[in-house]
Amino acid sequence: MEKLKQGSIFGYALGDLGINFNFQAIAFFLAFFYTDIFKISPGHVAGLYLVARMWDAINDPLMGYIADHTKSRWGQFRPYILFGAVPLNLILLACFFTPEISETGRVVYAYVTYILHGMAFTMLGLPYSSLSAVMTQNQQERAVIATYRMFFACVIAQGVVTLGVPAMVDQFITKYEKAEPFESHYEEVAQNASYDRMMEELAIRKQLIKEKKSSDDVMKQVEKQIPAIVQNEAYVDVLEKLDKLESESAQNEAVAPVGESMDSHQDLENTDHYTLIIKQHIEKYISYILVVKQKSYFKSVVMLAIGSVFLLLVAFKVSKERVKVKSERYKLKDIFSIAFKNDALMALSLAMLLNTGVWVTGNAVALYYFKYILNDQKLSIYFFAVSVAANLIGALIAPTLTKKFGKRTIFISGSAVVTTFGIVRYFTPPSQVEMILIVSGIFAVGQMLCSVCQWAMLPDTVEYGHWKSGKRSEGIPFAVFSFMQKAGMALAGAVPGLILQLTHYVPDTAIDPGTPAHSGILWLFNLVPAIYSLLCIVALNFYNINPALYNNIMKELKEK
Fold it and tell me: Burial code of 72-88, b = ≥16 C-beta within 10 A, e = fewer?
């Protein structure tokens, strides 16, 4: 067969950039969006991820069967890229849309949209990945294809998503606040507001009231401090303490609505009564800023969705199905026998599940780690920047390493690096931010080598399965892999959600060192990915395709 042209590889790999604009928005931000923006409990998020994957156990193999039996003027797999790009990204937008409904309604809405997204992702992603198996049968060309794909997915897409989304969100928040200011907005904001400081200010304000200052002047001072309280993420503590004061108050006098002047200075002289007014202002501001954040995330995802559709259509136009192999048509009932008889596929798929768990858990929990452990969420930008640079290094060295040592060996080596440096990062003190970033960079290089190898190894299981069973299927191996990838995402969503729930994590509340929630986030960011990678090494010991065996398989298949 004629050597695959670089332009074809490049154009095909652009599709993975489009897919990962979509996939990584879900992987990196959806769990955090659900808990901290959409206000769904971590327990519900864990359940959502698990239920969605239970459905995928049926949906993905069925889609593999449909793709294998597709015939069209565009080919076997390409039409799904053409007709799936727009629906996939519309459902992505639905996932980040926040209708004004009850808490139960929000949970139901999240279930429906997330499961639909998984189905749309399978409808497009599975045929797209299967396409690589019919572009070439050359092992090294497949390694190059996988390298290009991972370059676009883990360097370009990850850079755009992890660095671009927070920047876009901040930019849109600023625009919304200017266009739709809260109340009259504020000329100045106290930078170090806290509950204790607020209580000290109460005494001063009471004195102002006694001195016959107008209630409007007093309320303006209250308003000025509220954004700082919220921005410093202390508002949950403030509200809890205000609730306590409210419950302890012996008075049940009516409170004037927020924004209205009070006629009686005597009412304002009562501290308990005054705290109720502050509570109303804080709650109103929280509602306002949540709406602003919701709109900002949605608008940011719109930008990704537009880019995703364009890139997928380019991949459809450029990619060609070149491998034509006569094979026995299999029936629907043969799906599971084709999959489970392919022992190399089973071992590699288990490794895929665990490696996806490493990738998604570490990156998704990073938002919690920097916000609550290092107490500076803006540091996550540096973490993602280091990860992108490390991914680039991994992508550049992967083809040379796989050619010299073999894909399985490099996959195992990359997993060993992730295990080792996950443990090292766990024991690195939070004060040593530079060391944490360096260790994270080495961790990410190992992770990238694993990602390149797993996708380069997968097409080889197609020929291996054909050789063992006599039935050729591109769709079923890639369906199993697709399911395992999403199962890895479920693992990365359900386990953190469960641990956060069990450790009594409360969004936007300071977490003290030594508390269960603090320890839970440390484990999730460092040791859980290390454990997954260690298990990945175990799984890869059961993958038995090496260059000599593969060459023998190809020889025997051509002789049939």
Answer: eeebbbbbbbbebbbeb
Q: In whole angstroms, what is the distance from residue 92 CA to residue 25 CA? A: 8
Reading the block at residue 113, the tokens are 């949209």
Look-up of token digits 């936007």:
508
HSE-up of residue 140 (Cα within 13 Å, Cβ side): 7
Predicted confidence (pLDDT) per residue in 245-273, tens digit: 445 443 433 444 444 443 444 444 444 44
Q: CA–CA separation, 341 vs 239, rounded Å?
A: 59
How far from 162 is each of 347, 394, 449, 479, 489, CA to CA, in Å? Answer: 31, 18, 20, 27, 17
Which helix (DSSP H) or strand (DSSP E) does residue 552 occupy?
helix 547-559
Give the pLDDT score at 394: 92
Residue 345, amino acid: L
What's the pTM?
0.66
Q: What percent of the chain has pLDDT over 90?
A: 30
Q: Are 405 and 547 in contact (CB under 8 A)?
A: no
Phi and psi (nearest 5°) for 506? -125, 120
- 3-state SS, residue 102: coil
